[in-house]
Design goal:
The complex is a heterodimer.
Chain A: H1 2-25, H2 32-57, H3 65-83, H4 85-108, H5 114-133, E1 138-139, H6 147-150, E2 152-153, E3 156-157, H7 158-176, H8 178-188, H9 190-195, H10 200-226, E4 228-229, H11 237-247, H12 259-278, H13 283-307, H14 312-327
Antiparallel strand pairs in A: 1-4, 2-3
Chain B: E1 5-14, E2 17-27, E3 32-36, H1 43-51, E4 58-63, E5 66-67, H2 73-79, E6 81-84, H3 96-100, H4 112-131, H5 151-164, E7 169-173, H6 181-196, E8 200-204, H7 208-214, E9 217-222, E10 225-231, H8 237-245, E11 263-268, E12 275-278, E13 282-287, H9 293-300, E14 310-313, E15 316-318, H10 323-329, E16 331-334, H11 338-342, H12 349-354, H13 358-361, H14 369-382, H15 399-412, E17 417-421, H16 429-444, E18 448-452, H17 456-462, E19 465-470, E20 473-479, H18 485-493
Parallel strand pairs in B: 3-8, 3-9, 6-7, 7-8, 13-18, 13-19, 16-17, 17-18
Antiparallel strand pairs in B: 1-2, 1-4, 4-5, 9-10, 11-12, 11-14, 14-15, 19-20
The chains are: A mainly alpha, B alpha/beta.
């Protein structure tokens, strides 16, 4: 328990440190409007990363979320035209859940490894989005749909509220329901879980559907914010989500991890982006710096764990996990 | 005689646990030196330090007169110290030969195909050596991937790996825990042959009879300290047990009779005798490793299908295709591989106990935490599971306590039939006693037990009836009160008619 606390506070400490440095370097950083701006930018990645966390705890991975974001947004706006905005939203979520169901079925019943399954669906779903839209953006300038991305309740933009609700729900699911416990059990030892009477296939399908639905929600928000759905949007979003999960201390080997850690991870990435922009750093250098921060964070995490008296096996499994993150 | 290995004042602390508190140890050249102690006494830690896997906090280690470099597996190996761990360290996808020469391929002369051929030939001769020239059965294909080998075969590869190097000290951690009587005898033969060649063996085992028959000297550890080192002449079972647990355990096995109730399970295979278990009785499944005991009970539990197997549960025909169905009917299984199949090591003790019970405990959406705690706590108390906090991960528990957690899952579920597959493997004397006590309690509560054990005295003593398996068939049913290890072995090997 204390190790986990140290870990979480470690990444939180990193976030605060980055924040402190940025507030010294730029007097625009620590203002209410900028912080709300950061949170709004983080919201989409955080929503996707919440689903990714659940998937990764089962020992899986979902590379198709970036494409699902695009497909859900396009489907929503296409359906919204004839059927109305609310039906459109539902359609986007249903399509995204369908992608998750396909992933889950292939993985659980077809026994195709998650990495390969979602690598394939990543391409298929992107193709579907392009076919559906003939490769053209779908513009939406009016209607209640835009509320999702553009409205403000009090001082807080709706995407931030959606992020908060999503994160609380995901945390509650993982820590307070029996299915959440099953998620950890399947990731920790699938065979023991099966012998305890848990339907491992059922849990796997459930987590990919959840991952798909949350990616779909993120896609709806993104389309609403931009007043248009682009079939080419969301490329590389899966990597940002995985980075947030890893920065949050979730093991890519499965069996452990928290939503709370992922939130901190998503904010580390968001705050860095924001800081670089405030300081007019070229986007090319931003990419290099972001990758460096991820490696640095995991190295520091290793050092903390080694200091807490952990030896061999755990460290080496983390190493492997890290490699996977970078090859993915 | 100068000792080969000399250890003085060795200490090691893991977090809050003092694993070793100033241990001294001497191993002479060509000696079989046994290390005994309860789980958590520090045996494995000591071994890991010697093999270089773990760095000690303090202590003086000398090997063949020179200081032994610590914390480097490579350095220990160069000195001639080779370890055969309890958890196998073979790489499943590589062949037996590749595993044996892993990391020192260049020690074999030749290049390319010639070297590979030389390695294969060397593997074959090492295996033949291990089997003894007479034992023609069970040769090992040097080109088979390790993942296709059985547990004893894998162990043979481990030992062959140790022999393939110029080993002067071989460390063995529970090498016979997974072996049958025959295989154990073969391993003992190998160890004696090593000794005759002047190789020293440091041997950890929970089977004290084996220690007494094999070791030249025995060092007893308790709570990270050395109690004493006794020569083979003065060592007795009672003295070892007293040293290990700090008290004397008078009766080794203590089966208590229980009232036999209604029939629970009947297994009728297509060929061979049926197996029947009633409430209040323990039925033992004896047989060699590979005789199909585990496969049979796994079929009953719905883990894997087996055609031609007719099951009856409480008088009704039974069809199970998933463990979940078996659990709902009231069957629980403590699997053979505790860590691989029985537990989710990273999750809390309470959660592990609750795992097969959550569907009963919660109507789905309700918060889980309080209920899990309430379910687990009385069991942790009843089973005397020693832990700091029920939410700590199972990984932090000793082997015996981990096994109690697996058992607790099914007691919490109130399963009517418990399938126990090697429930005392790799756990210490004290924990075994606890396991026997719990088995007695389970049958007294009117439940049935189907017990698999490769420890013959144990399975005979703890069962009411014995079913002996050979080649995937039940070939004999014996009354456990009158059965002797010899008659059971005779049926298991096919010598009895």
């Amino acid at each position: 328990m204390s190790r986990r606390l140290l870990r979480d506070y470690g990444s939180l400490l990193g976030l605060l440190l980055i924040g402190a440095v940025l507030s010294l370097l730029s007097d625009r950083f620590l203002t209410a409007s900028n912080l709300i701006n950061v949170a709004r930018q983080v919201s989409i990645n955080a929503i996707v990363a919440a689903g990714m966390t659940i998937v990764i705890i089962t020992g899986g991975i979902d590379l198709s979320v970036g494409s699902t974001i695009a497909l859900a947004g396009c489907a929503a706006l296409l359906v919204a035209r004839p059927a109305g905005d609310v039906v459109g939203m539902l359609a986007g979520i249903v399509v995204a859940a369908g992608v998750g169901l396909l992933n889950g079925a292939l993985i659980a019943w077809g026994r195709v490894p998650p990495f390969i399954t979602t690598l394939a669906t990543m391409t298929v779903v992107r193709g579907a989005a392009l076919v559906l839209t003939h490769g053209e953006p779908i513009v939406k300038t009016t209607g209640p749909y835009l509320w999702l991305g553009q409205a403000v309740i009090g001082p807080i933009p709706v995407p931030i509220l959606l992020m908060i609700v999503t994160l609380l729900a995901a945390h509650w699911f993982l820590s307070r329901t029996r299915w959440g416990t099953y998620v950890y059990a399947v990731g920790g030892n699938a065979e023991a879980a099966r012998l305890a009477g848990i339907s491992v296939a059922g849990i796997q399908i459930l987590v990919y559907v959840l991952g798909g639905v949350l990616a779909g929600l993120a896609g709806l928000v993104l389309a609403a914010r931009l007043s248009s759905a682009q079939p080419n949007t969301g490329v590389g979003f899966e990597l940002d989500a995985i980075a947030a999960v890893v920065l949050g201390g979730t093991s890519l080997m499965g069996g452990e991890g928290t939503i709370w850690g992922t939130v901190v991870g998503a904010f580390i990435i968001g705050v860095l982006n924001n800081g670089f922009n405030l300081m007019n750093v070229s986007p090319f250098y931003q990419l290099i710096a972001k990758g460096g921060v991820i490696v640095l964070a995991v190295l520091v995490d290793q050092a903390i764990k080694a200091g807490a008296g952990r030896s061999g096996p755990a460290a080496s499994s983390e190493d492997r996990g890290e490699q996977r993150a970078h090859s993915g | 005689m100068d000792p080969l290995l000399s250890v003085r004042g060795l200490t090691k602390r893991y977090g809050g646990v003092q694993a070793l508190a100033g241990v001294d140890l001497e191993v002479r050249p060509g000696e079989v030196h046994a290390l005994v102690g309860e789980n958590g006494a520090g045996k494995s830690t000591l071994l890991k330090i010697l093999s270089g896997a773990v760095r000690p906090d303090s202590g003086d280690l000398r090997f063949a007169g020179a200081p032994l470099p610590v914390g480097s597996p490579r350095a220990s190996e160069t000195c001639g110290i080779v370890t055969i761990y309890q958890e196998f360290t073979l790489i499943p996808a590589l062949t037996a030969t590749q595993n044996i020469f892993l990391g020192h391929e260049t020690s074999v002369p030749g290049r390319g195909a010639a070297r590979r051929a030389a390695m294969r030939a060397r593997t074959a001769s090492l295996v033949a050596d291990l089997l003894g020239q007479t034992g023609g059965s069970g040769g090992l294909d040097p080109d088979r991937p390790v993942r296709e080998l059985s547990v004893p075969e894998r162990q043979m590869v481990e030992i062959a790996r140790a022999l393939s190097r110029e080993s002067r000290l071989i460390l063995m951690d529970e090498p016979t825990a997974t072996l049958t009587t025959q295989e154990t005898a073969r391993l003992h033969e190998t160890v004696r042959r090593l000794r005759a060649r002047g190789v020293s063996v440091l041997y950890i085992s929970h089977r004290l009879e084996e220690v007494l028959s094999l070791a030249d000297r025995v060092t007893i550890l308790r709570d990270g300290r050395r109690v004493e080192t006794v020569g083979a002449g003065e060592a007795t079972l009672d003295r070892l047990i007293r040293g290990m647990v700090g008290r004397s355990i008078t009766e080794h096995y203590s089966k208590e009779p229980a009232a036999r109730g209604e029939p629970l399970l009947e297994i009728r295979p297509a060929v061979g005798l049926p197996v029947r278990v009633a409430a209040g009785e323990v039925v033992g499944l004896a047989g060699l490793v590979g005789s199909g005991r585990t496969e049979l009970v796994r079929a009953v539990f719905g883990v894997e299908g087996r055609p031609g197997l007719a099951l009856t549960w409480c008088g009704r025909p039974l069809r199970v295709t998933t463990p979940r169905q078996a659990i709902r009917l009231g069957i629980g299984m403590v699997p053979e591989d505790r860590q691989g199949q029985g537990l989710v090591l990273g999750l809390g003790v309470d959660v592990n106990i609750a795992l097969p019970n959550l569907d009963r405990l919660l109507a789905g959406w309700l918060p889980a935490r309080g209920g899990v705690r309430r379910l687990a706590e009385p069991l942790i108390r009843d089973l005397r599971i020693r832990l700091a906090d029920p939410s700590h991960p199972v990984r932090s528990l000793s082997g015996g306590n981990q096994q109690k957690v697996v058992l607790a899952k099914w007691l919490a579920r109130r399963s009517r039939l418990l399938i126990l597959d090697e429930p005392t493997r790799g756990i210490d004397v004290g924990a075994k006693q606890e396991m026997y006590r719990l088995m007695n309690q389970v049958v007294r509560d009117g439940k049935g037990i189907l017990l698999i054990s490769s420890d013959l005295p144990e399975v005979i003593a703890m069962s009411d009836r014995l079913c002996v398996m050979r080649r995937h068939q039940v070939v004999a049913e014996l009354d456990a009160r009158t059965a002797s290890p010899e008659t059971v072995m005779a049926h298991a090997t096919g010598l009895a008619r």
